[in-house]
Known about the structure:
Blueprint lengths: L1 H16 L2 E6 L5 H11 L3 E5 L2 H11 L12 E6 L3 H14 L4 E7 L2 E4 H9 L3 H44 L1
Antiparallel strand pairs: 1-3, 1-4, 2-3, 4-5
Helix pairs in contact: 1-3, 4-5
Amino acid sequence: xxxxxxxxxxxxxxxxxxxxxxxxEYRGLTVGQLKELRRNISADATYAVxxxxxxxxxxxxxxxxxxDGQLVGPSALAFIxxxxxxxxxxxxxxxxxxxxxxxxxxxxxxVALSADEVKKLxxxxxxxxxxxxxxxxFKASLFKAAYMFNAPLAQAARAVDALRQKQESAN
Length: 171
């Protein structure tokens, strides 16, 4: 009994401290495949296998209702504490190679996500790529602004040079 209470307390804490949670069904996956999945997402998430009744209690304790009615079959949760997009991508890629892993739904910053919405999350570019694109846009804007400021000066310099050449050729 104390072990179950400790498990519920641990799951409740993970629900509360995670910025996202993905609910999966892993029926038929081997221990080796689950280890591989854990290794793939370990930088940004932890993957916890638990009994559905314990998950229900922990979710209720944490005020999470996103998984109500979905806790059937062997369930496991990916508690994401890092980049949600990279974990969603890793889960999608793992599920392609191991079709027995099914992502049922998710919870992102308190908002429930369907399985399709989790797939869309996986299709987003990573935070680093988006930041690099934003930096590129800002850099291009700065170059454009610098060109706009320099253009009148360069135009004036060319006009003065043309006048000078005209005067030299007239003399």
